[in-house]
Amino acid sequence: MGRSLLLAFVLVFCIGANGASADEPRPVRIEAVGTVFRAALSDGSVKEGRDLVGMVLSFSKNGVPLKVRIAAFYPDPSDKTGSVFLHDFRIVDTGEPLCEPAPDGQRTGFPLAGRTTADNRLVPGGPGDFELICAGGALGKCVRFGYHPWETKSDGRSMRDYYDACARMVRADYCGNGHGWTRTGMPIDIWDDLGIQTSDTRNDASFSFEAGWTPAGAVCVAHTRVPGNITLERLRTICPHLSSVPTCDETTARSAGALLYNRSH
Amino acid sequence: MQSRHVAAASAILAALVVSVTPAGASLTYNALTFNALTFNALTFNALTFNALTFNALTFNALTFNALTFNALDANGPEINRLANDPRGSSIGSSELTGVDLPR
User: Fold this and answer.
1) Interface pTM (ipTM) of the complex?
2) Distance from CA of B43 to the nearest CA of A (A)
3) What are the domain boundaries of chain B?
4) How confident is the model over A29-44, as pLDDT tens digits?
């Protein structure tokens, strides 16, 4: 709590001390709401989303300064919920996009409230905590899949659990310790019991059930995605709990608490 | 009821076979007919199979393209300038030092 307050104070101080002249409203607080930035200004007004195109965020990463400008802002064309917005983040010094291309070619990202722990879980963090997420990375993909961590299901469960489970799945982080065992470009077919994602490969024999997933990693693994990276036998020695479900399929994974499931080659 | 129909059909078939078999060429006719029917059936099956396969493949391909930008996973860095960040992400508010609003 103390650290959060200190961070919030430093953030507000830094934002207030930067930039605008005395007669212009200054940002006193900036936060992420969904996938959108919202800035509260010193005159009491609020700017968000498209109004913040052109905003420059100054960071210091390990002592290295990095300025990022929001060059464009638009709704994610693949999002059916209307709640995901993509930002064209540009590095001010070079004009280059901050993000690598996603598989659909997008070099975009968005802010997400909270902070990511060392073992890759999203936690709420303090007031105003956010991270920049690139659409092409595992975290960005999971938001674009429809697992919106800022939402709550009708039964009160946070969608953050689904988002975290998705991030484990995309990275093949079976053990839930932040170590991914996949390789970029491996096709996976994902689905869940909420109907947010449905399986596309039920009739494709080249895909088979890989694992069921929770925020803590896999509950069981039928086969590893990239045996060249790790075999099932080796994985079970590293993560003994994966042997507790002898036969891993959708039914047993569900019984073990899985939120998401996937198939792979 | 059903077995009676089958029995009646069998009787008619037997009569037909009896009536055409002595004519000699009728065997050829039957064979040709059979072959033609078989061919048609095979053709139909092949076409059907191809059509179904095509549709299935097309559907899968479209689905793959539409949804699987998505289903291609990634173990790479979230942000290219932070390739060694073990979190796979990210830069965020804890590194934020200032904000300039658009004018």
Assistant:
1) 0.80
2) 24
3) 7-89
4) 999 999 999 999 999 9
